[in-house]
Here is the input.
Amino acid sequence: MDEFDIPRPFNSEEFEVFQKGISDNSSIDVYINERRDFLFLYPTPRTDYNDYTPRVKKYGLSGYKKKLQVIQRRLDKIEHLLENRPYSLLEIGAGDAGFLKIVRQSMPKIHLTAVDKDQNTVHDRIRNADENYDDLEELQVKSRCYDFICLFHVLEHLLSPSDFFAKICRIMSSTSVLIIEVPSFCDPLLSLYENQAYSKFYFQSQHPYVYSPPSLQRLMEHNGFQTVDLINYQRYGFENHLNWLSQGRPGGNDVFQQLFSELEIDYIEALEKHGKTDTVIWVGKAAN
Here is the structure.
């Protein structure tokens, strides 16, 4: 196994097989480090993002995810960082710029910029952002820095995070705030319930690396950033987890939703309090 298939600082750690096969490729295995906080896929998968369908669309879960208000709840988690002043905010991998849309609604003074190659959602980005670009290179030519730079569910797709961070640093000032959200291996269906059906579903070719709060912090600090905060964010709740535990499949369940809707908020808050969440948000700056 080529050590350079694994990003630094994890390439110096010892690994063992965690799972044979992943959801979309039985010949790719999952390896976990001794600290059990970082995983990678091997052989390293390569994804053509010019011909890519997100799993939420592939499995027909877009409506269910929208019902959970995932984007609004994300903003709720980081809203204290974003003051409603004439700041600039850049979202990389913005998709349809749904996050920028709700930022604009609550904080109209912030100048919003979107970066994404997807031409299927470009019209939404143009509508929801003040500026729209296909890639970071266009921004580097402008020699522009941003007050806030956001990456939501982008980092786990990147095979060479260090190269990407080098580009990010060119559009950051000493006061810029970087906000990164990734799926977390602390996901309760994995770390608490050890649900085998979910584990088979969870690992996929589009995510060559899987992080947790400690490994994400190590990655960022190794690449010259200073950690300001780590925020535990649980996207899916009691209804979804009961569906996995009883039916072994994703999505909602109308019966569970009706029976246990009053427990949902308390359940999510308990998971976040104890760090057993499906998502982690890292907040930081360039180290001095």
Q: What stands out?
A: The CA atoms of residues 43 and 232 lie 30 Å apart. Residues 63-81+145-286 form a domain with the Rossmann fold fold (CATH 3.40.50.150). The radius of gyration is 19 Å.
